[in-house]
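$ ./design --mode recover --in tokens.txt
reading tokens...
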């Protein structure tokens, strides 16, 4: 029998939105079309643990939106939601969040990190090294868009005693009922979280931007490695509910 202490109530929180050219979402498809994206955090409410996957967009989006305008024009600027206001809908204060993690390490997932002063910060070691502190190759984006300078300083100098660097060989249990594995595909810090709910396991990952990616076996358009997409889709397709990280269809879902 399943231990009820290991089961989480899961709430999908929309933390922002944007529009992007469709080939960013679907590899070599959708020319001259646009796709709407939602950015999401997952609130995991357990008997002894309140866990947050992603912490929302940064308050200062000037650098991010300058990059987006340079990429494809004003249509694709990021528009944020206040994650603290969203959490209040579930009667959760920032101080009640005792664990946070991210997929991937980007400004739109780490932007609210400084608001959760009581949380242990779970960071995948491979993503931390290869995306943030010692990337092997020059990235197509500046590090400040992977993680804003003030948030990086916060992690290194204010919150380092709360940081848990974890490895995923092949996976890692953050807690009973929360398992995480490295998937790559979009970024070196891209992960898949599998969470036990009352209705079974759900998986949340940015290796698939929208449901069509995994359903139709179409890699994301801005994949760093398309073969990793195929590997991830094969692993997770048909094994419980899969939540594609930027799909508006998962806005406000509950499990």
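writing sequence...
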């Amino acid at each position: 029998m399943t231990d009820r202490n290991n089961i989480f109530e899961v709430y999908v929180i929309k933390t922002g939105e944007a529009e992007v050219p469709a080939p960013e979402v679907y590899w070599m498809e959708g020319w001259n079309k646009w796709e709407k994206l939602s950015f999401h955090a997952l609130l995991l409410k357990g008997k002894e643990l309140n866990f947050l996957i992603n912490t929302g967009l940064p308050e200062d989006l000037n650098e991010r939106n300058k990059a987006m305008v340079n990429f494809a024009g004003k249509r694709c600027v990021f528009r944020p939601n206040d994650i603290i206001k969203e959490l209040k809908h579930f009667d959760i204060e920032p101080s009640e969040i005792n664990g946070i993690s991210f997929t991937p390490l980007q400004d739109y997932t780490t932007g609210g990190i400084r608001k959760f002063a009581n949380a242990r910060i779970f960071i995948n070691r491979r993503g931390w090294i290869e995306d943030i502190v010692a990337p092997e190759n020059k990235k197509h984006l500046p590090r400040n868009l992977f993680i804003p300078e003030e948030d990086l300083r916060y992690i290194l100098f204010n919150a380092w005693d709360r940081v848990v660097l974890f490895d995923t060989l092949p996976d890692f249990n953050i807690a009973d009922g929360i398992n995480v594995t490295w998937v790559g595909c979009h970024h070196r810090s891209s992960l898949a979280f599998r969470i036990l709910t009352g209705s079974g396991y759900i998986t949340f990952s940015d290796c698939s931007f929208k449901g069509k990616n995994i359903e139709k076996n179409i890699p994301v358009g801005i994949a760093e490695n398309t073969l990793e997409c195929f590997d991830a889709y094969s692993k997770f397709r048909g094994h419980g509910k899969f939540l594609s990280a930027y799909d508006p269809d998962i806005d406000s879902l509950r499990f």
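exit 0
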